[in-house]
Amino acid sequence: MLDECDELADYKIAEYIINVHREKSVMYTPPYSTAQLLRYIRFARTLSPRITVESQAVLVRYYQKLRQGDSVGGNNSAYRITVRQLESLVRLSEALARVHCDDEVRPVYIR
Questions:
Q1: In a domain, 1, yes or no
Q2: Which site from 28, 35, 49, 84 is most exposed, i.e. has the minimal number of CB atoms within 10 Å?
Q3: What does pLDDT average to over the chain?
Q4: Which one, of 87, 88, 71, lies nearest residue 79 by Cα?
């Protein structure tokens, strides 16, 4: 995951953060209650999404792509990509499936 520079997005984020700290007295009404969020999180944790064959192919392809980018000579910004990063991709993909209450890890969650 890269933190790409985008002048407009950076401006909006900075403006929002500064306003939150400046106007602490302004109350925000969240769309869901704390109880509703806790119930959703409890349910999402019960899911054990399975990696589909299509998703497996996408994970392998992305891992290979990361490894190839890491081995390019003279690339000072590259980090050593190891199996741990692949395991992290799997866990993040499973977590996104849970967020969407999905029983399967779909390629969109990997991308």
A1: no
A2: 28
A3: 86
A4: 71
